[in-house]
Amino acid sequence: KPPTLARQLTVQMMQNPQILAALQERLDGLNGSPSGYMESLPKVVKRRVNALKNLQVKCAHIEAKFYEEVHELERKYAALYQPLFDKRSDIVKAAYEPTDEECEWKADEEEELTDEMKEKAKLEEEKKDEEKEDPKGIPEFWLTVFKNVDLLSDMLQEHDEPILKHLQDIKVKFSDPGQPMSFTLEFHFEPNDFFTNTVLTKTYKMRSEPDENDPFSFDGPEIMCCTGCTIDWTKGKNVTLKTIKKKQKHKGRGTVRTVTKTVPNDSFFNFFTPPEVPENGELDEDSEAVLAADFEIGHFIRERIVPRAVLYFTGEAIEDDDDDYDEEGEEADDEVKHLWPQ
Asked: Where is the composition biased (Acidic residues) (predicted)?
């Protein structure tokens, strides 16, 4: 449908900075502030607007009930997904070898391959088959997933990678019916030289009701706090700490001595020791930034990584996620890189 002359003129006007500035000045003069318009209304109209606000509060409470039922549905379907996720885990850790039928997959790209490319691919496959080492399951499955996703790879340090090679599965557990809304991420590890835990957990507690002091801010359940777990590190293997040597000069004698000091170290495993939220709920700016990024990561693992792990392993899901974000998302990534103190 061709644009009308009026529409063309409007577009041209809106692109003129002088006209835009004049319009803004006119609006500012009318209202003075966002609440200026409300202040200018007759008292009887303001009274009715208050009635609408009370209706809105009731809407927020109904919305909270809606999200409670959504949570019940999530719990119900989690039980249906779990057998498939368990089988995925068994294939990854070589507890189950899939049948030829289960391994059949026709990729779109295969249709476009030339005979020469097919022959080359066949030779490469045969060469791999002749190699002495026979890999079990899908080696480094979860480590590869982490490295493929910017939000997670930004947390990874080189010293984390040998540990994450032992990660066999990530599971999501929802709170029981009747309990406050929460979910727990379970990271299952095979026996390793780094710590004795077989499972590391991170629990996120959520608020699913409107805040009495600010009911209009309610937009569904939001994470309020999280708790990690104690990692039972093998002696000398704790990657969340590092030892540094410092020289100290004696004030009186002037002699110098070298002291050894243990300080925090950047590591993915700091994820399991998030800042504690004090009872008054007040946090310093750094802790707030850490928790905000932590909540984003926990939500992303639950909503995207666990349900679609194979597509993050292959990289197919990365393109879909890139399409979901605009340029503002790049700034958020920078915050994640500096989650924990140097």
From this structure: 101-114, 320-334
